[in-house]
Write a structure and sequence with these properties.
single chain, 71 residues, 70% helix, disordered N terminus, mainly alpha, 0% strand
């Protein structure tokens, strides 16, 4: 039952929340993720906070840096 609740929470997360939790699971800082994805850490902060939504190409880079599928 707990697994079901966790899975439902993942589906209700925003893109920024998913980036944040994936990053934390991998014990990465925003700066480390940004460097690995080839972007500024300020962009990662904005995505995680929901101030801006990353474009498709940017999501590909972030997912690759986090080593997670996202499609």
């Amino acid at each position: 039952q707990i697994l079901v609740i966790v899975r439902l929470e993942v589906f209700s997360m925003t893109i920024g929340e998913r980036i944040y939790f994936c990053r934390l699971e991998r014990k990465m800082t925003q700066k480390q993720l940004a460097e690995k994805a080839g972007m500024a850490d300020s962009a990662i902060r904005k995505y995680e906070s929901g101030r801006i939504t990353p474009k498709f190409e940017t999501l590909n880079r972030i997912a690759a840096a986090l080593e997670v599928p996202w499609t």
